[in-house]
Amino acid sequence: MCCRVICRCVLSLLLGGAVCAVAQPASGANGALPDAPQAQSENDVSIRALPVNILHDQKTIWTSPFHLRAGDLKVLVPLLAATGAAVATDERALRDVVSHDPGFNNANTNASNVMIGGFIAAPVIFYGVGHFHDNEHARETGLLGAEALLDGVAVEQGMKLIFWRERPNQDEGHGHFFQSSAGWDSSFPSSHSMLAWSEAAVIAGEYRQPWTQVLVYTGAAGISLTRIMGQQHFPADVLVGSACGWLVGHYVYKHRHRYESSRGEVRPVSR
Question: What is the CATH number of the domain that holds 247?
Fold first, then answer.
């Protein structure tokens, strides 16, 4: 019991740092996400600037636990409470609630793989449309989408190597944390969920039409749900992957975007 409590405390502290990371602005005194980039380097949205922007993002993400603010508790406390509840019921949920029928599980796993392929391809499609049709807004969406995906990969891989959680098909589905036997592709958090929600947040930020919001967020939610239905991840893996993915995508959009869409019109952001 003592070991379990310690693990959950460590989980909360590390998760808190990772989640707050994407909510922190690069600059500004009020702690809120700015509506427009503040540093000149953040205004450069191009393929050439992509590696530098990603390094800047990662520095902000992984050093943010040292800069936590009281306002972060509005995000952290509910998420940590939900995560704690999910971790406590994960094993029972997959054992007693989710079907173990191989056909059902495989169908859901395949569906999640097909859908995530669409989200991964989205930046290339947007950038291609923008490039060949001289559409700067679409080109920006592609570049920011790629940045959010790469940031998401770095964050989820870092968290996997921190938490070493067993997947549902290991050790009779107990889902223990800090097990080196879990390997580099451990269960926590869900990669599919992280990538889907990071890309969805960028697209939803760039294109504010209701149908776009419904389409991208329904797709991301579908990917998250099918990872559970496929017995590939525990609910806590998906919850944290989805939350962190959305925050990563939202962070990238808020700090980099130069165009905004409202009522069907696209216009440059006022500085």
Answer: 1.20.144
Predicted confidence at residue 39, as pLDDT, reads 38
* 46-62 pLDDT tens trace: 899 999 999 999 988 88
**Token couple for 196:** 């889907």
Residues 6+ away with beta carbon under 8 Å from 221: 242
SS (H, E, C) 40-99: HHHHCCCCCCHHHHHHHHHHHHHHHHHHCCHHHHHHHHHHHHHHHHHHHHHHHHHHHHCC
Q: How far apart are CA 77 and CA 235, in angstroms?
A: 18
State the total domains in the chain: 1
> Which structural domain, as residue segments, surrounds residue 162?
2-268
Judge whether 203 and 219 are in contact, CB under 8 Å: no
Predicted confidence at residue 30, as pLDDT, reads 40
- The H-or-E segment that residue 27 falls in is none
To the nearest whole number, what is the mean pLDDT of the chain? Answer: 82
Helices (H), the chain: 2-23, 50-63, 73-92, 102-132, 136-163, 191-206, 210-229, 235-256
The single residue listed with the structure tokens 């947007």 is 126
pTM (two decimals): 0.83
CA-CA distance, 226 to 230, in Å (whole number)? 6
Q: Cα–Cα distance between 243 and 39 in angstroms, integer? A: 26
